[in-house]
């Protein structure tokens, strides 16, 4: 029915979403985007009370301490339209491995979504995720993807490369290397990368929350330009006024050392992690258009990252 020109429309309905791993660097940046919206409220799930104080504050954000079991999650998800599942690990520890951090929490989230009648799940995965992978990390992410895909709930899976943004592990390592005059990195850093700005990932996630997938949609979202890690270090160094010389660490020797040390420490850097971080990041089709994102040029991402690093006390 056509509207009379004088009709006054009411406010747009507000969507309620929930985040797991909300105190991660990706979670906090996503919440800063939520705070700037006028149609989305977020429940920010964290494991411990002390993590609540690290989250962005906004009337649109409600922090909740959660545990990853069905009974603990279900009440938190009541009234939520979409769950964004960010929680997971790349580096195992004495108390946390891939099964207990990547697979089992995903199953708990899916089961709680079913009980709470959540309409949509957005799951952030990794390039190369495959339940048949020989790499234990990528296999765990593939297993988690399968849990989501088999849930019967409308789902969007986004596989990502190295993420660059304030506080991300990739950004911290990059800035640390670029601030030196001479460094050695695995294999000389000749592997190909497609770094993705975390702000772009946040925009893609919110786009997915608003536009529910029909069935299960799997996307690979990477940055706009390929580079090698050695060139990324050099480019970042140049922006910092440093001319960085990049040498090589033998990958086989690093994996041997990591295997010994990680077995003693029961966690940390392992051959599995080394294989992940030295793998070429390639995609069949970048999902930026499908996910409604205009990708940030790498040079802009690096300048923003360095400005944020400089501004920190």
List the helices and strands and how they pair.
Blueprint: E1 15-20, H1 25-35, E2 40-46, E3 61-65, H2 70-77, E4 82-85, H3 98-116, E5 120-126, H4 136-149, E6 154-160, E7 163-164, H5 169-178, E8 182-186, E9 192-193, E10 196-197, H6 198-210, E11 216-220, E12 227-228, H7 229-239, E13 245-249, H8 251-265, H9 271-277, H10 298-311
Parallel strand pairs: 1-2, 1-4, 2-3, 4-5, 5-6, 6-11, 7-10, 8-13
Antiparallel strand pairs: 9-12
Helix pairs in contact: 1-6, 2-3, 3-4, 5-7
Structure description:
The chain has ten helices and 13 strands. The chain has a seven-stranded parallel β-sheet, sandwiched between helices. Strands 7-10 form a two-stranded parallel sheet. Strands 8-13 form a two-stranded parallel ribbon.
Please summarize what this structure is.
This protein is an alpha/beta fold and 313 residues long. The protein has ten helices and 13 strands. Mean pLDDT is 93; it is low at 5-10.
Number of strands: 13
The sequence of SSEs as H and E is: EHEEHEHEHEEHEEEHEEHEHHH
Helix content: 25-40%
Oligomer: single chain
